[in-house]
């Protein structure tokens, strides 16, 4: 076997050049909107958290940004905790709540489909994080259409 002579990696080392930005830093023009939709299950993958973070970035770039939770996406907006609501049972357990609250605190709007809440997941409006607006199932399509008419940036998130 050849002998390895390279020093092992250590905390603080860089693997990539994370400071070089290839594209210009785009900011919203006055009145521009963005919509991020979620049809994904909480804790089933990273896309739920990643696109909440994208929504926060869009909002900070000046877009009037909304999040639409429908189907299994409503599970991102539910209050959770153990042993009581709000408690973090394991590191990262409250990532969705923390970041949705941050997003709403910075002016973002979050909508959740009432049909998915009750019919699919057995929850009522009281299970949602404070600040999330429950909407009729017919509003899901109209929310998307209104954003399309406004030429909004739309990030659709689906997982299966």
From TrEMBL:
UniProt name for this protein: MSMEG_0572 family protein
InterPro entries found in the cross-reference section: DsrEFH-like, MSMEG0572
Domain of life: Bacteria
Species whose genome carries this gene: Salipiger marinus
